[in-house]
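Whiteboard transcription, Tuesday session. T.W. wrote the structure tokens on the left side:
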């Protein structure tokens, strides 16, 4: 038999006895093992036991009639490494220790724990022990998964929807008479390429892991041919394309990289509090539209109307959703797709004004960068899953995300407290500054809003090049080519004086061989210049005919001179865009170089890239400074330190499109732009307070509800089935959750004690 066949038979044997193993594990965990002298023993066998404190050889195990060998082992706190005739068993305490280490340090491998055990017990490490420990650990996790499923059924939690519509109580545990939020909930989605898995790794393992996080491949592939031809305007397409280019995650992975990986990464959706809601595996591709569509479809089906999602390329993904098969559903349910706060500042200024959270009502202070924090943590699992089987690839990620969610639930009260304090501090700081500025310049809040709208409308206008201007520039370019061709031909045919030529004289008469060759070269050059002139003349005449130009423009004509000036401005705009792109890349490289968890090789590579980028910026800046004084009106000459210090890339839009009347607008003044940003930050802070008041009430109600529900479930089981092993399991779970909920209660009391807290103060039960 092949290894695959052996694995299939072992999996079938484990699956058959799994219900018995679950019951045996619960009995061992919650009841002290006892030896009944009247118990019939049908078989006695011996195993070597690996534990934390020692390596015991030939432990005697008494097996009851019709009892699987591993059920007998579980009564002794052991779990065998094979389903039918185990010879080596791992102590449950040892498996649980590795389970907890693995949850909190995803890069800690099974090979590492087995080497640690061998060192502790003075045993030479052998590979077979690693494989046996791995098999036992897989079954142990499956037992825990089965127990969790039983508990969820008792508590009425649907595993298909719980992660999106139940795991985060501040998002989902809605209360009567609470303030209506719009958007109702805030989410973030993004893709990550660290979670790769090599094609063919673990091919002998046919198992499929059942995860409550992952969207099935079939559900994702529903959208593989779903994106229809877009009908958006050229301007919108250009802007979204330019924004997308700033983020490599939005581009397809190179073909040579795809071929070696079966899983190229993951696409993830999370709530604003950091809990993972669903995950899609990216197979042999980059961040294709189907992953985002499947994720959004799952969100709409479960959560319903008025959802907001942050995505680094929201301007593009929103159009993708609108033109897909779920476009009508998304529009009907009022789905809102916006850019994240940090990623948003890399987008075109016009895109920022339309899609950035700072300028959108209802989003509060949420930056929607949740996915980046999750990926910074999940990247630690990459070292183990790169060569894992598909089963273990998903198992490792599921285990990591499950612990991540537990940690985020534990920190939920702290999240609400910190955000409340942050919002109050911004209100306290910005309010007097804005009031003083408004009084000094005789302004109102409406002025800040009108500045934003005026800037957005202006950028929308200049983003579209008038057809007449484009035609004029193209026509002048052709005329300049004709002038050059005409000048070249005229230079060759010009003569400085008059000559008398006899009738029988030829061009080569009386010339030696060298002179005759020079004459032929001149004739060839003359003919070539004539052909180029005639060809360009035909091009100009054809252009005039196609665009109904009846009279040829001359260099002194006003229309000609205006087109030349406009062409020079286009060159200037391109130079600013080049400079902007280089600064964008430098900003992100600097942020990545200082990111915790970035490896040494990556930091070294980024440092070299920053050095190269700095040189390129200087060259682009020199080009800009040459063209800036030639503009009408002249643009400011910039210094290198000023450019690299730009905090907002929106400054480049003013440079590109400034005209004499625009420079007089209040929204182009630096001080006004700074105050406008403070104003919108203040507005978002007040919105954040409103949202936090709702979320605090939800969390307070949830901790009381969960404690009460679990106690009711325990009482119900005691009445219906007093011998159920799940009673003790529910009591253990209640003790754990009650401890965490008490931590929430303490944090909630700290929030209630804030001087400017404006929400409800609910009573707490301990």
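and on the right, the sequence the group agreed on:
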């Amino acid at each position: 038999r092949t290894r695959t066949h052996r694995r299939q038979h072992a999996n079938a044997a484990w699956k058959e006895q799994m219900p018995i193993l679950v019951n045996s594990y619960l009995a061992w965990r919650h009841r002290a093992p006892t030896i009944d002298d009247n118990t019939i023993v049908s078989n006695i066998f011996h195993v070597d036991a690996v534990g934390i404190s020692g390596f015991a050889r030939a432990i005697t195990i008494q097996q009851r009639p019709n009892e699987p060998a591993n059920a007998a082992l579980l009564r002794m706190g052991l779990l065998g490494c094979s389903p039918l005739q185990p010879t080596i068993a791992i102590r449950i305490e040892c498996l649980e220790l590795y389970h907890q280490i693995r949850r909190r340090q995803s890069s800690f491998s099974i090979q590492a724990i087995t080497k640690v055990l061998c060192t502790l017990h003075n045993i030479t490490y052998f590979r077979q022990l690693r494989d046996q420990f791995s098999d036992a650990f897989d079954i142990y996790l499956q037992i825990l998964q089965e127990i969790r499923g039983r508990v969820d059924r008792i508590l009425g939690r649907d595993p298909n929807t719980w992660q999106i519509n139940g795991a985060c109580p501040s998002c989902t545990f809605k209360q009567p008479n609470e303030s209506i939020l719009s958007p109702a909930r805030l989410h973030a989605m993004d893709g990550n390429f660290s979670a790769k898995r090599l094609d063919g790794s673990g091919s002998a393992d046919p198992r499929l892991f059942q995860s409550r996080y992952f969207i099935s491949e079939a559900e994702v592939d529903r959208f593989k041919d779903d994106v229809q031809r877009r009908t958006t305007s050229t301007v919108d397409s250009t802007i979204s394309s330019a924004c997308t280019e700033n983020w490599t995650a939005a581009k397809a992975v190179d073909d040579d990289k795809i071929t070696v990986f079966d899983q190229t990464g993951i696409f993830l959706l999370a709530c604003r509090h950091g809990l993972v809601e669903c995950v899609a595996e990216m197979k042999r591709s980059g961040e294709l539209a189907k992953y985002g569509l499947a994720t959004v479809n799952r969100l709409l089906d479960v959560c319903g109307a008025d959802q907001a999602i942050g995505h680094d390329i929201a301007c593009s993904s929103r159009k993708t959703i609108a033109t897909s098969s779920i476009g009508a559903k998304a529009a009907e349910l009022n789905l809102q797709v916006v850019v994240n706060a940090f990623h948003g500042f890399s987008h075109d200024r016009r895109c920022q004004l339309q899609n950035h959270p700072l300028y959108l009502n209802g989003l509060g202070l949420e930056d929607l960068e949740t996915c980046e924090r999750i990926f910074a943590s999940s990247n630690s699992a990459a070292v183990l899953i790169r060569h894992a089987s598909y089963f273990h690839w998903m198992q490792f990620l599921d285990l990591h995300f499950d612990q991540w969610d537990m940690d985020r639930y534990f920190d939920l009260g702290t999240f609400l407290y910190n955000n409340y304090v942050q919002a109050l501090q911004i209100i306290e700081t910005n309010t007097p500054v804005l009031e003083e500025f408004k009084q000094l310049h005789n302004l109102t809040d409406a002025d800040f809003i009108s500045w934003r709208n005026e800037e957005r409308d202006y950028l929308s206008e200049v983003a579209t090049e008038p057809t007449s201007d484009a035609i004029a520039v193209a026509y002048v370019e052709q005329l300049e080519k004709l002038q050059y061709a005409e000048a070249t031909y005229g230079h060759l045919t010009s003569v400085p004086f008059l000559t008398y030529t006899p009738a029988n004289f030829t061009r080569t008469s009386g010339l030696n061989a060298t002179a005759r060759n020079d004459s032929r070269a001149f004739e060839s050059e003359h003919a070539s210049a004539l052909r180029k002139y005639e060809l360009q003349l035909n091009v100009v005449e054809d252009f005039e005919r196609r665009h109904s130009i009846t009279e040829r423009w001359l260099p002194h004509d006003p229309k000609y001179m205006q087109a030349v000036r406009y062409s020079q401005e286009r060159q200037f705009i391109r130079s600013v865009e080049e400079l902007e792109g280089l600064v964008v890349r430098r900003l992100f490289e600097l942020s990545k170089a200082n990111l915790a968890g970035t490896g040494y090789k990556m930091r070294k590579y980024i440092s070299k890239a920053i050095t190269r980028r700095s040189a390129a910026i200087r060259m682009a800046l020199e080009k800009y400074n040459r063209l800036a004084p030639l503009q009408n009106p002249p643009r400011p000459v910039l210094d290198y330190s000023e450019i690299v210090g730009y905090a907002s890339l929106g400054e480049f839009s003013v440079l590109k499109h400034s005209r004499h009347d625009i420079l007089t607008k209040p929204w182009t003044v630096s001080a006004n732009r700074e105050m406008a940003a403070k104003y919108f930050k203040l507005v978002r802070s007040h919105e954040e307070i409103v949202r936090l008041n709702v979320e605090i009430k939800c969390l307070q109600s949830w901790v009381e509800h969960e404690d009460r529900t679990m106690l009711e479930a325990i009482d119900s089981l005691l009445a219906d089935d007093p011998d159920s092993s799940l009673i003790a399991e529910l009591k253990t779970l209640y003790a754990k959750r009650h401890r965490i909920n008490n931590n929430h209660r303490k944090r909630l009391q700290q929030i209630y004690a804030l001087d400017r807290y404006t929400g409800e103060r609910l009573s707490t039960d301990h």
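Someone added at the bottom: The longest strand covers residues 261-271.
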